[in-house]
Task: inverse folding
């Protein structure tokens, strides 16, 4: 069973926390979440599931930013949520999907007990101009059956920022914990200046 | 809880309307919906969430149409549906997904009370030939918990056609209501003819 | 209602079979499934919904394989599952989605009664190195309401391998059953050698 908008309101401060919460973001069976003004993109030639992958931070200015196709943008919601005894789930809004913008990559479900900002995985079919703080997705709540053991993990719980994948921690449990989580390039970036071209 | 196919049949004419309805489209826990014979594509260099975006209409002939990768196609179901007291949801069929054809862009959930045709957001990984009236997706129904306030909106309720995104109505509430909803190009389309090329 | 991890464990050997089953793959409201070491890609210029489409088999070696963008890879889970009286559903894991790797193409839901390996439809936004036997996705179980009629089909039930789309069986019911399910090219592959170019 999915919680109606009225039931989401009734659960606020009990099993559900959404901060900030605004009445007008309630839908018949979901609640709209908004886009924060920062993005991360990966800075690697080939991503690798066994290693941390470097990222770059991009600001979305008030006048908007054009997303390009063939590029993954990680983002986060403005809202921090906590969910107990329900399964929270992120879904795109149809108004966003109709512009060809994916907001997650087959991974809409959260875990019971998840606390934090939602990392969005954005992928655009066509160039599309986005704006900070727009209602980009919705959160949906499913009831559960069975005894609850809440989510706890060293990966994404209580995150404070956009969170790139940390699957390397799981696949490579001996990964040096004291490192800076950054991979170094094992090649020399090519330096081509006007001068060296002429030379 | 998700309605079984038998329960969908039992709810027909009560909380659920599907027109036309054909017994053979019932699945164990969903109902197959079919593709109408028209598509819309956007006609803009860059889509913009704050403006209406122009579209072009394409007919799918009986002999099929090849969809191209890197292109969003909006389509609609043949079926008009009404759903009360359940959450309706559109999902791809596995036979369609196994050919690399997305039928929605992270926006499968509808709202309790939605009445109309379902707009599909189609995106193909490889070139793929599609045919009109084929069973392209399935509708799934979730039970709800809590008091129901049905969907009503000036965006997509009681639509009669494929519906491009109307998020600009929400982001720019002062958008001129009397306009034709069409953006004009602010550049002159380049005219290149065989003659001008030779000239 | 979605089954908690504890309820999935309690249903094992009753309504749910997962083989092999490992306690550490249980999540708060799902169970992680792992990637087998083989992939299929289509070998057609244009895929066609009315015909079988040829495929090629690729092995994922222990040192990993780099997936390319703009390419669909069919894969399967190591695990064979059986589900009675619940709706099984496949979802990506967020750690995988955060690397831009889709594991299904809008077709996460299975049917009540489905028995077999899960065919995954993988699509990468960026080049990404994957490894055999990694936990790639999760299975989620929904309770149902209504009388159950289990899935039975000549398409995917009791499959033993990765299963390409068989929608042609449905769209073209007279398709020659005795054939090898392989389409033949109706053009001569172009032969261009250094010699013929100079000639």
Result:
């Amino acid at each position: 069973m999915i919680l109606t908008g009225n039931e989401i309101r009734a659960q606020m401060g009990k099993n559900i926390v959404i901060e900030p919460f605004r009445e007008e973001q309630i839908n018949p069976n979901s609640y709209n979440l908004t886009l924060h003004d920062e993005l991360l993109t990966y800075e690697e030639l080939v991503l690798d599931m066994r290693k941390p992958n470097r990222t770059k931070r991009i600001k979305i200015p008030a006048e908007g930013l054009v997303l390009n196709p063939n590029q993954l943008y990680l983002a986060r919601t403005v809202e921090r949520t906590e969910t107990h005894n329900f399964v929270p789930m992120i879904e795109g809004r149809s108004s966003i999907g109709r512009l060809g913008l994916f907001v997650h990559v087959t991974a809409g479900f959260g875990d019971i007990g998840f606390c934090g900002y939602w990392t969005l995985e954005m992928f655009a079919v066509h160039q599309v101009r986005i704006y900070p703080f727009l209602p980009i997705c919705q959160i949906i709540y499913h009831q559960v059956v069975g005894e609850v053991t809440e989510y706890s993990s060293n990966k994404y719980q209580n995150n404070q920022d956009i969170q790139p994948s940390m699957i390397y921690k799981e696949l490579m449990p001996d990964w040096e914990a004291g490192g800076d989580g950054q991979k170094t390039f094992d090649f020399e970036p090519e330096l081509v200046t006007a001068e060296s071209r002429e030379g």
About this structure: Helices of chain C lie at 5-11, 94-97, 167-171, 194-198. The longest strand of chain C covers residues 72-83. Chain C touches chain B through 47 residues (CB under 8 Å). The two ends of chain C are 71 Å apart (CA to CA).
